[in-house]
Amino acid sequence: MTLYDLAAPGLDLRDEPRYRIAEIRAADPLAADPVLAAVPAMNADADVPALTVALRALTPTPERAASLGVVDALAAMRDLGILLGSLKRHGVQPVAAVPEVLPVLEELGRRTDMVPRDTVHHYTAWNPLGRRQRMYTGDPMEGNLQDAVRMVFPSLVAALGSCAELARREPYEAGFAHTLDRIAQQVKSMVEAIDFTIAQVSPVFFAREMRSYFEEIDVAGSDYLGPAAAQVPLWLVDLTLWQCDRGKAEYDAFLDDSVRYSLPSWRAHYQAHKGGVSAVSKLSAALSWESANRLPPRLAASAVSLARVLRILKTFRARHITIARKAYADEVRLYDAGSGGAPIELLRSVLDLTRDNETLVRRSAPVPSPRAA
C-alpha cells in the first residue's frame, strides 16, 4: 500500500469525477484487460503489426465513445493511450496507422475536457494496480515510476486548494503563515516521491527503456506529448508562491504549454492566478515598511513559513536535476529534451529561481537558518 492509497479516498468525496480514482481504476469500458496484458510482450518484440491490430480492435465507434460518462471516458483514453505510446515508441504514428481512432480520441477529449490523448494522470493515478495495471514494459522499475507519481497526486490536489486560499490572504494575517505551513506539509510528498524514484528507478532504465514511450504523437495536425512526469503540476504551487509575477520568459512559456495537459479545474486555477501577486511579492512589500529588527510577530511568522515552503521546493528541484542529468548524460541519453518537452537547462533555471526567491525571503527577515537538506 502506498501513500497514494492511504490519501486517495478523501478525493472521492469531492464533486469532481476526475477524483473518483477507485471508479476510474476499476472501469474497463473497452474490455481491454486481456489485450493490454499482452502489451509488454508486444513491445519487447517490437511487434508493430500486433500493436496496430490491438489498437484497431479496442477502438470503439465514435457513437460509443460519445455515450460514455466521464469516468468511463477517462478509462477508455487510458487504455487506448498505452497503445498510442507503444506504437510511437516503435516509430509509427498511431493515428496514421489506425485512422479510425482519430474521431474517437477527439470525442474522448471532449467528453473529459482534456487533450485528445492520454496524460500522466491516465498513466498513473487512473491506472489499475496489480494484475490489471497498464504498462509498456512490465518491468518493476516502470511500476515504481508510476507509484512515485501516484504518491503525490492527493497532496497536490490539496496543495492547489491551499494555494488558492493563500492568494486571498495577506502576510499580516495569521492565516497567511498557517496556510503556508499546510502547503509545506502537502509538498513534502514531492521530496518523498523523488527520493523513492532515486532509490527504485535507475536513470539508465528511464533513459534507455522508458523515455521512448513518452514521445509526442500527431492528432489532427497537432502534437501532444505522452504521459510525462513533467505534467505533474508542481508549477501550479510555484504560481501563487512566486512565479505569477517573478518568473522568466522560458518558464512562463513552458507553463503556458504544459497547462493544457492538466485537469479542467487545475487549468482554471492557472487562469485565475497567473496574473496575480505572488506570496513572495506580498511579503517583500510588507517587509519594506517594517524594521527588520522589530517585525510584527505575524509578519515574522509569515516569512519563516514562506522560506520553509521554498526550501522544500528547492530541495525537490535539486534532487530532480541530479537524476535528470544522469538520465540525459551524453553517454546515456537518446533524446536531448526531457519527456515534458523541456531541456535540462530549464530545470536549472527553475531551481535558480526557486533558490533566489528563498534567499530573498531569508535575507529580508530574521528567518532561522535551515538545517542541511
TrEMBL record:
This is DUF1864 family protein. InterPro entries: PrnB, Trp/Indoleamine_2_3_dOase-like. It comes from Streptomyces chengmaiensis. Pfam families: PrnB.
